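Input (GAF domain-containing protein):
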Amino acid sequence: MRTTVEAFFRQQPEWVYFITGLIIVIGLVTIFILIGRAAMKYTEKIDKELGFQKIQRELHDTKYQAAIHQDISLQTIHALRNAERFLEQLQQARRFSVQAEENLQTYENLMIRVVHALSSDIKFQPGEQHRSAVWIEEAEQLVYFTGSNAFDDRDGNQILPMNDTIAGRCFRKKETQLVPDVSADVDGSPSQNGYGALLCIPLSEWGVLTVDAHHAFQEEVLYICRLYARVIDLAFFEYSQIIDDGYIAQQF
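Output:
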């Protein structure tokens, strides 16, 4: 059998081998072309799939950012409405003439409500926690006046030194202090109870509003805190006027 096959190939002219080789080459080229086209189509399909996934991710991120901005807008509107309500209460207290002792209590209660509302009105994301407090300057130191619920365990006579504290620096310089990491500040100290960021806003010539947070503050928080600080400032001005007029002697 082998001899017969060898004899058959020896009898074939040269052009037969040439044509056969050419057919084989053309066949291989055709196969490679078909494989290449199939690979290109598969690659295009993969690219389209990846592009679709990318678009889906971008759409998801856009929706997420839009939801965050919507929450911020709603929370800001809520804070502005609260501030408007506090200002109306302040105007009413100034408009109606009542006994000095009652007026004093009205202004004090208003400041307490503002401080309590502030810690919740700057909560823009679930899980955020803040605490706020008002400190009054007395004898070259800052004395605790009132604070949000997180300060319930604090002694009402707690004192912050005027030096070597961020709140004291705020009062001395009469400048807002926005500190994203208190442990890295020259006047700061290691965070307590997870509160690592601090915002201090001076209250005219008499005190400081402090706001603690677990994380760095968003930009919107600063504006809301400044607005609430002005309400506290106005309320304390009326409060101090009653005391300065000699109606009531009160120690902080």
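Confidence is low (pLDDT under 50) at residues 247-252.
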